[in-house]
Amino acid sequence: MKKAEIRIKADVPGEPLGDLFGIFFEDLNHAADGGLYAEMVQNRSFEFDPIDHPSYHSLTGWKQVGDASLDVRTGDSVSIKNPHYLHIEAHAEKSGVRNMGFEDGMFLEEGKKYDFSCYARGKALRVALTDENGEILDGADVQLTAEWNFYSCVLSPKKTVHVGSLELTAETYADLDLVSLFPEDIYRGRKNGLRKDLAEALEDLHPRFMRFPGGCLVHDGKLEADARDSLYRWKNTIGDVKDRPARRNNWRYNQTLGLGYYEYFLLCEDIQAKPVPILPAAYDPHHQRMAPLDQLDEWIQETLDLIEFANGDTSTKWGGIRASLGHPAPFHLEYLGVGNEEVGEGFRERFPYFVRAIKEKAPYIKIIGSSGPFCGGREYELGWECARENGADIVDEHFYMPPKWFLANMHRYDSFSEKAPHVFLGEYATMANGGENALTEAAFMTQLQNNAASVKMACYAPLFCNKNYVNWKPDMIWFDNERVCRSVNYEVQKLFMNHQGDELLPVTMTGEKKKPLLRTLEERKSGGIWFWGDESRMAFSKITLQNLDTMQSTEFPDLEVQTDGKAVCLTENGPQNFTLTFCAKELEGYKGFRLFFGAKDEKNRLGWVLGGWENQDGALVEDIDGKCGFLTQNRFQVEKNREYHLTLKVIGNRIEGWIDGELFQSTELAPEEVEPLYVTASLEKESGDVILKAVNLQEEPVLADVLLDGRDQSNEMEIWTLLESSCKEDPDFPGVETAEVTHEKTEKGTLTFPARSVTVLRL
Ligand code: AHR
């Protein structure tokens, strides 16, 4: 077998890698409540409401026990911020309620201790942990008084149960509020803290930073801070948990905010990740809500107050509040994001006000702007332009794309400027929890690192998913009540974070040839042309298809697509290079249509979207193996009953969409290639280690000599290997693959980089 040579220049001082690889926490998929936040009682303050989710009511999560009347009341509750409480009238002994936790049953472990607490008033209350048949595993009697008081006790079940509950029965009557149960075995022993196994999964990554608290969670909501479905307002999330107002989480569930900004900062400190909070820009792109420009002060002040809360001296108002919560020392905030994934003028008008104010108050803060949810297109460009013009330090880019897109765009960042604003790849994933995906992500990460002069931060998304509440997949870490499943994508992230290094080292590889493309351009463009209504009824007329190779034109009869989701075929076998001109009119619905071309089947095709999500998109897309990737996007709204004159032009690797005689958007299909080996090298200053990360995406191993220039190489090396062939689906988490990472010591010499593998080498 041929041997390649990998040469690392160990004596060339490289680009600092700084805070390159980190994590992104968002409370979706019940990542916080019912997840990382260790509270075991669901709906602890009886605040659940149909605003959060249509199926919710004030007794969601609770069941009646025995013969009791249950009445959720308001008026004189424990906190005006959470106005509801439960009144129990017991008509027989052992009557009251039972909380089932987040998954129709709590996991309770024999011998472990659980901290129960609640606010209550009334006569006597019996608190118990029970199994699914109501057998009491441990219990305590609490004497109540006529006034609200705080009660607590420790319970320890006599056996392990998987469908346990917390039972509260009244002797005669009792009022209950903020009913809580936390495991005592909690991350770092902190009260109101985090599930140990999940927090440890984060700690094991050694992330350089943590972006939080979202995501769409931050910027989807009403402007009023007191609205239940408000934008994410950080001040609502600190202080006594009883006073943190229950909130609608825009991922359609309830958020207690028990895991709030103070807890986020503590977590960052514990796992030694720099905090990267993202604040709303007084703007909701989902519903086009925006604070008037003359009312931005409140929002800007809130942003400045967060900086003071994190970093201010204890003599300052917000620094003092931080100290009163138990943390006099600052949290060393360095980064701040304004806006999540913003599109539209509304954001770009408001962003400069925030930047000016932050720069004036805290010039050392690195401000993060946004380029929206897509990898390219007009909104993306405008986001960058806005960041540049206003002197933002970093731009948060997001893209979720199929693996083949990542392969085709491996060198995306090679042409990016090394001058600020730099790149923060704040959300990315290859759209599945499988070996192929994780390996592709690893290859892409080598190139993120190689472009450290322009890419300053990157984090995979989303982070957590409770398998019983899936809003979004794939996710890096899956869990249920009992178990944590670290996906193969997690293992890749862990390898890159654990072995990031501090300075980039130049690395070259010689002796291996590029392989043929995965799919040729012809293959990608071959297939049928179809029209499809996106829940809309559409009329198409004056349809002409011109083959640009033969210059032959064909006219087609008018056609209609219905709201039934069925696509209508124009031709089963479209030409490779063509223009398709037609008129389109939306007759019903509001999301416009898609035109598919190069369509082999429903999972592999190119497409032109007009309308789409919230009727906001004009996009050229590619479906690969059933995953849809947006190649370029502009904002576009389809007007009902208006006739649009449209042309789609496909020539070579270029695709153009024309609307009413004007070029609206275009993209170029990048070749899908697999390089011989993706490599990146770095120096870890403290250990002096040279670290090589190499990803082999080929079906054959690569043999290579690894040579260090400018430094002696020791005889022994450490090596970590992740093989795609070791990936297997976790039976408890269908669709999620896990992998083994082996670790060994090896002698200096020719190395084998196994087929389909990630290798980390410490020299
Ligand atoms: O990561 C899931 C979601 O994807 C985030 O909330 C949002 O920013 C993006 O659209």
Helices and strands in order, then pairings?
Layout: E1 3-9, E2 21-24, E3 62-65, E4 68-79, E5 82-90, E6 95-99, E7 106-108, E8 114-122, E9 124-130, E10 136-143, E11 149-155, E12 161-170, E13 173-183, H1 196-205, E14 209-212, H2 216-219, E15 247-249, E16 253-255, H3 261-270, E17 274-279, E18 283-284, E19 289-290, H4 297-311, H5 317-324, E20 335-338, H6 345-361, E21 366-370, H7 378-390, E22 394-400, H8 403-408, E23 422-429, H9 435-450, E24 455-459, E25 464-466, E26 477-479, E27 484-486, H10 488-498, E28 503-505, E29 507-510, H11 521-525, E30 527-533, E31 537-547, E32 553-556, E33 559-561, E34 568-574, E35 578-588, E36 592-601, E37 604-611, E38 617-624, E39 627-635, E40 643-651, E41 654-659, E42 662-668, E43 678-683, E44 690-696, E45 702-709, E46 716-723, E47 728-730, E48 733-738, E49 741-747, E50 750-753, E51 757-762
Parallel strand pairs: 1-45, 2-14, 2-24, 14-17, 17-20, 20-21, 21-22, 22-23, 23-24, 25-26
Antiparallel strand pairs: 1-29, 3-6, 4-5, 5-13, 6-12, 7-12, 8-11, 8-13, 9-10, 9-12, 15-16, 18-19, 26-27, 28-43, 30-34, 30-36, 31-32, 31-33, 31-35, 35-40, 36-37, 37-38, 38-39, 40-41, 41-42, 43-44, 44-51, 45-50, 46-49, 46-51, 47-48
Helix pairs in contact: 4-5, 4-6, 6-7, 9-10
The protein binds alpha-L-arabinofuranose (AHR).
